[in-house]
Amino acid sequence: MSNGMKSPFKETAMIICAAMVALIVLGLAAWVEPASAAVIHARGDHDYPPYEYLENEEPTGFNVDLLKAVAKTMGIEVKINLGPWASVRKQLENGEIDMITGMYYSFARDEKVDFSASFIVVHHNIFTRVDSSIEELADLPGKSVMVQSGDIMHDFALDNLPESAIIEVENQAEALRLLSIGKYDAALLATLQGLYNVQKFGLDNIHSVGFPLLPRDYCFAVREGEAGLLAKLNEGLAIIRKTGEYRRIYDKWFSHAKQSVEDGRHSTFLVAGIALLLIFTLFVVLRARRSRRKKKP
After folding, report:
1. 18 vs 238, more confident
2. Which of 63, 106, 142, 202 could pair covalently with 52 via S-S, beta carbons 3.0-4.6 A apart?
3. CB of 202 within 8 A of CB of 138?
4. Run of H or E including 216
């Protein structure tokens, strides 16, 4: 065999070596740029203002701004798409998407998905018409009560209001509009969100009654077992709280509604104070009269 020709054995060895080098290079590239660099697909409710909703077909709201801030801080690329809540929740539970922009924590839900640290505690209330006799939870048996399908208050109503007619609606704004025109008796809604929609749509004949119900941690939710993504979300939340970005976002969406809640509380305290003052005054007057009677011969 001439020196200018390569043996088949040498050619095969060179091909194998080249293939091994290629595999090593690809492996190093994958190690340098981990899977976390992939786009995170997040979904949320398309009609849940002010937390998340569509405006001119674009996702917006408190949850959306918060997730974008966390993603920017942690160098995560996130694609946010909103849709009907019941289907969005089902997609996460089935592992079809990476995360949900906002979900109330419960033990039952925690068995199907994983939750981040809480980024806000949400209270709920009974909403009804101002001329209604409903004043508290004990007044709801025998009444028709609206809840958003798949919402945490839907779960609550099924467990705690067996004697009420539970009416499922697509979103919380629909529940308030139906109440306003005389449909059904009450609705179980998130407090700040309910007040936000009452103001937004000018529903002056609707108010909240009773004590706050079911305070719940509101969190990001990810697919079961997504520990890496969960760690990044929690770290990002901690950072934006430290930098003040969280407060800026919170004030942008809730300062007005929060003031309405505070005004309502102040009015309640004022009425209670006046009532106590009147009772005390009456007590003093009656006692004075009784003393005068005893002094008469």
Report:
1. 238
2. 63
3. no
4. strand 206-223
Distance CA 11, CA 142 (A): 86
Tokens of 43: 């979904």
Residue 120 has pLDDT above 80, yes or no: yes
| Alpha-helix runs per DSSP H in the chain | 8-32, 62-74, 85-93, 107-110, 152-160, 172-180, 191-201, 227-243, 245-295
Closest CA to 232 of 83, 34, 48: 34
d(C-alpha 30, C-alpha 195), whole Å: 49
Report the chain's mean pLDDT, rounded to a whole number.
Answer: 83
pLDDT score for 23: 47
Rounded-to-integer distance, Cα 53 and Cα 59, Å: 6
d(CA 101, CA 202): 28
DSSP string, 11-75: HHHHHHHHHHHHHHHHHHHHHHS-GGGSPEEEEEETEETTTEEEETTEEESHHHHHHHHHHHHHT
Strand partners, 216: 122
* Other beta carbons within 10 Å of 138: 8
Pairing of strands 165-169, 113-115: unpaired
Mean pLDDT, residues 191-196: 90
For residues 135 and 176, give the distance between their C-alpha atoms in angstroms, rounded to a whole number: 17
Please check whether residue 5 is in contact with residue 54, taking contact to mean a CB–CB distance below 8 angstroms: no
User: Tens digit of pLDDT for each residue in 207-254?
Assistant: 999 999 989 999 999 999 999 999 999 999 999 999 999 999 999 998
Q: Which residues lie closer than 8 Å to 281 by C-beta, 6 or more apart?
A: none
- Joined together, the tokens standing for residue 186 give 């009450």
Q: Which residue in the block uniquely carries the two structure tokens 């909703």?
A: 53
Q: At a CB cut-off of 8 Å and minimum separation 6, what does 149 contact?
A: 85, 86, 168, 169, 170
